[in-house]
Design brief:
Mean pLDDT: 98
Structural class: alpha/beta
Number of strands: 24
Radius of gyration: 23 Å
Distance between the termini: 52 Å
Bound molecules: NADP nicotinamide-adenine-dinucleotide phosphate
Largest sheet: 7 strands, mixed
Low-confidence stretches: none
């Protein structure tokens, strides 16, 4: 734990294990309720300092932190890979993306501005000038999930600093290591003590306290819909951003370029063993291409290397826990009982599941209609584009979706009709760069991330009116 720029210890400890084989990796301290209070108090004091930093001072801290993170790429990638079991090559990409997220945040600090309001457009506004300034909110609680432990944290902490706020960060219990290292990097780069506090502990034990705390002005949460809805219900008038789950779908048109689509869809379905909020879970293939697509998709899947996450060649490692792997296994069995064909993979060894491809999956089984968060994809065929769009929209979620087609009219028809936060044409729904607006509709959440959009959510426009 880090509170007010210092490491903090407690009697309660929590082991961190490599999810792949249970090897002990580290031990961290579990925050008590008193320590959450301390962290919030430290953030409240630091918020007064943060709001007075010039935009360039905030930007410079973020630029330095981005640079330092890049220098420590290997160390940070190893921490990520060890805590969440992500293959090391994907962990390196996460570190690179996190450095960009901080760089984009540092640029947003320079762009923080309000506007001049045309007051005398109203008769009663004659002789008045007014402007808005964007003010920080104060203390922001950032609660993050296990699957991208560094970059998703930077998507909250970077914009919060750019906007002049102080943060209490609660990383997922399984993955606190990169968050703790990052807090030290920020301190080294000049962030005032208390502007970033990291409380490690169980969300079930300390989450409610943080969410309901009077001093906390905003909760920015990434995680599952169940926890997100609980937070929303407890947050009262606090500002709340929720980045939640999805069961991403992609449409393969009859004219799709399969040389391009197949390998991208394999990556989009199985990267980090499907534990990505925009992982492809449902593929709808035009009926004329169905057999060809499936054959090529399975061939490509067989090329994936399964193994230890620290091995440089590994593509598939493990899920976060054995229990999660067992859950995914049971969802595959349920789909097969309901009539789906398991055409490849789906074998479990401890927390690892081989990439599972199912065909003809009934839409009502959990594998289709809930978020599976595992290395599993359902491939179904369709006759008309309208039918495919209907299938994509037949979901409680709406984060991102996509289509592969050479027909621009079909591409834009789908882009207009599919109800999601982001739609990809000739790209997989798992595509994300860190400066773009990112967020969902329906059960996928509310609000948008991407530093520019997050800074807007983390500031309040204040009107200043002057009677001449
Ligand atoms: P999770 O179980 O919802 O946990 C997320 C965070 O919430 C963790 O830090 C967790 O702490 C904490 N938490 C748990 N109970 C809480 C409570 N009552 N009050 C406050 N905080 C609480 O999610 P996860 O399993 O880590 O991550 C997977 C989920 O995240 C998936 O649904 C995925 O789609 C979603 N996700 C969404 C995005 C996006 O951008 N839309 C990105 C990545 C992941 P503990 O770990 O201590 O329980």
């Amino acid at each position: 734990m880090r509170i007010a720029g210092r490491p903090v210890t407690t009697a309660a400890r929590q082991p961190i294990q490599l999810p792949y084989d249970g090897t002990p990796v580290a031990t961290v301290f579990r925050a008590s309720r008193e320590q959450v209070e301390d962290a919030v108090a430290a953030a409240r004091q630091a918020a007064a300092v943060m709001r007075e930093l010039t935009l360039e001072e905030r930007s410079a801290i973020l630029r330095k932190a981005s640079q330092r993170l890049s220098e420590l790429r290997e160390e940070m990638a190893l921490a990520i890979s060890s805590e969440c079991g992500k293959p090391i090559k994907e962990a390196r990409v996460e570190v690179e993306r996190s450095a960009y997220t901080l760089l984009f945040s540092s640029e947003e600090a320079h762009r923080l501005h309000g506007e001049v309001i045309p007051m005398d457009a109203s008769p009663a506004g004659k002789g008045r000038w007014a402007m808005t300034v964007r003010e920080p909110l104060g203390v922001i609680a950032a609660i993050t999930p296990f699957n991208f432990p560094l970059n998703l944290s930077m998507h909250k902490i970077g914009p919060a600093i750019a906007a002049g706020n102080a943060v209490v960060h609660k990383p997922a219990s399984a993955t606190p290591l990169s968050a703790l290292k990052m807090a030290s990097i920020f301190e080294e780069c000049g962030l005032p003590p208390g502007a970033l506090n990291v409380v490690t502990g169980s969300g079930g034990e300390i989450g409610d306290l943080l969410v309901q705390h009077d001093t906390v002005a905003m909760i920015t949460f990434t995680g599952s819909p169940d926890v997100g809805i609980r937070i929303r219900n407890q947050a009262g008038l606090k500002r709340v951003t929720l980045e939640l789950g999805n069961n991403s779908a992609v449409i393969i048109g009859e004219d799709a370029d399969l040389d391009e689509a197949v390998p991208r869809c394999v990556t989009g379905s199985f990267a980090h063993s499907g534990q990505v909020c925009i992982s492809i879970q449902r593929i709808f293939v035009h009926h004329t291409l169905r057999d060809q697509f499936l054959e090529r998709f399975i061939d490509e899947t067989h090329r994936l290397v399964i193994g230890h996450p620290h091995e440089p060649g590994t593509d598939i490692s493990s899920l976060i826990t054995v229990q999660e792997a067992e859950r995914v296994e049971s969802w595959i069995e349920e789909a097969v009982r309901a009539g789906a064909r398991l055409v490849s993979g789906g074998d479990r060894n401890r927390a690892t599941i081989t990439p599972a491809v199912l065909a003809d999956v009934p839409p009502h089984v959990r594998l289709c209609c809930r978020e599976v968060f595992g290395p599993v994809v359902a491939v179904n065929s369709y006759q008309t584009l309208e039918e495919a769009i209907g299938c994509v929209n037949d979901s409680d979620y709406g984060l991102q979706a996509g289509i592969y087609t050479r027909d621009i009219r079909k591409a834009f028809l789908a882009a207009r009709r599919v109800h999601v936060g982001g739609f990809m044409i000739n790209e997989i729904p798992q595509y994300r760069v860190d400066q773009m607006p990112y967020g969902g509709v329906k059960l996928s959440g509310t609000g948008r991330e991407g530093p520019r959009y997050a800074v807007e959510e983390m500031t309040e426009p204040k009107l200043i009116c002057w009677k001449l």
